[in-house]
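Hi C.,

You asked whether I'd gotten around to modeling the 252-residue construct. I have! Everything is below, sequence then structure, no commentary in between.
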Amino acid sequence: MCRWAAYVGQPVFLADIIADPVHSLIDQSRNAEECKTNLNADGFGVAWYGHRRKPGLYRDIYPAWSDPNLRALSEQVKSALFLAHVRASTGSAISRNNCHPFVVDRWSFMHNGQIGGFEAVRKAADMLIPNELYRHRRGATDSEAFFLVALGNGLETDPLDAIARTIATFEALATKTPKFRMTAAFSDGEKLYAVRYASDDRAPTLYHRWSGSQKGRAVVSEPFDADSGVWQEIPDRSFCIFEGQQVKINKL
């Protein structure tokens, strides 16, 4: 299972979330505590929104803890909305194109989870991607396929309906149990969205917390500290919208 962290609020350095805390995302890349394996060494990525409509994107195949460029970038770049991810592959190759987040125009998306038996249905999943979006299919992951199908299902106009329809489609496509488990975060550069869902009762972990000092909200696979505010667990089968201090959680 992968680990990820997202932030929305007043601009902060990326390092404030992904590098500096005691149990930062970089630390979780080799010392995760709330997933099957503590090692997430199959690449990393960060997408951040700044002065342009399309987010900046930096991804590579190295373990996050071993890349000095990631630390250097995170210490210099400030953003009011960003997504960061460390990857543990569930079967697809270790390549830059398979690293999260994925970006299409102004949208960014990252995912943690699995679709049961995806290798056997990869072609069928690819066939669900609309022709006009298929040129964005760079890698071979279930995550990227899910993102592109969700875009085709109307993510830009009705994110909740698009995600619900895409979950149902991929759940039906699965050939093994567990059929579907996921947490995901995505953004259009204005709002941050997050999803937690599983076909069984073992959804991957997901938390959020407002920081008064940062005047922003972090949404994470697992908390990056133990003593700075109160982390709230997001319930299973939830679709969340984060905008400023406002939090809206809908049932999926």
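If it helps when you're writing up: The chain has a mean pLDDT of 95.

Thanks,
B.
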